[in-house]
Specification:
Helices cover about 55% and strands about 10% of the residues. It is an alpha/beta fold and about 325 residues long. The termini are far apart.
Amino acid sequence: MADAQAISLSLPYPWHESVWDGFNQSIEQGRLAHALMLSGPQGIGKERLAMALAQRLLCTAEMSKYACGSCKSCQLMMAGNHPDLSIIEPEDEGKKILIEPVRKLCTRLSKTAQQGGWKVAVIMPAEAMNISASNALLKSLEEPQGKTLLILVSHRPSMVSATIRSRCQKTNLALPDRQVATQWLADITGNPEQSEATLDLATGRPLLALDYLQSDSLEARQQFENIVERLRHGDMSALDAAQQCHKQNSDLMLGWFMDYLHRLVTGELQNNLNPGLFEFSDKLRSARSWVLSGSNPNPQLLWEELFMDWLQAFRRRG
């Protein structure tokens, strides 16, 4: 449970303003649901929206659309000491959320708010909860306390227990408006052309595009796509390609592969489609589900099989 670290006050991103206005209206009218699920593609700012809402509820300023940053409650949040705010995340990226922190959360949510206002918990990503953790959370969802809000952030809501999903008010966040996202990125980078090109590579996800521009992940992605291109044109063997990829983050690279395939069939090959690529797309989705299931597939064998199937899709066509 990550409630002991200093945090910054959050504002929703520009493309979430209409959703934010809806949340504020629900708060003012006293009809905010006791559990919300914010879902949508990774890299569009769901976590920040969740934190902005949590902070907005806990802020004690009168008639404020956002957390004020000045009241005692906001000061406690920024210091990471607010007793009525709980944040649950995996201890390490890609790991599961276990039952113990969820049990502790349920105990906290069942008690009276220490600051006399709201109690808020944020779980992100919700699909990281293992079965025991999910089951432990159900009691809080089935017997909600007054002025208590649980916010579940999910990149893949289909992987969250159906019972949990059914007890949440769902807000599905789509990709941002293209013009708004491009302008936001250009304002940060000062380079509109590079921003637009990188946003294309990130399939419209502005935070992912920003990460590409500010880290070495763009180079890593380009190297991966170069391997895929060389395979496609017969300039590399599937075994050599798998050897270069098997030690990397399989979930991340499978996402890159899916994005690359989407750009290929909607761009270069849109007027000359290869039916084998649709079958291969299904194999990519199956492989990603397998990786995310926690079954620990052998990455060398996984990539060897995928890359051989990738080669076969083009050979059959020929």
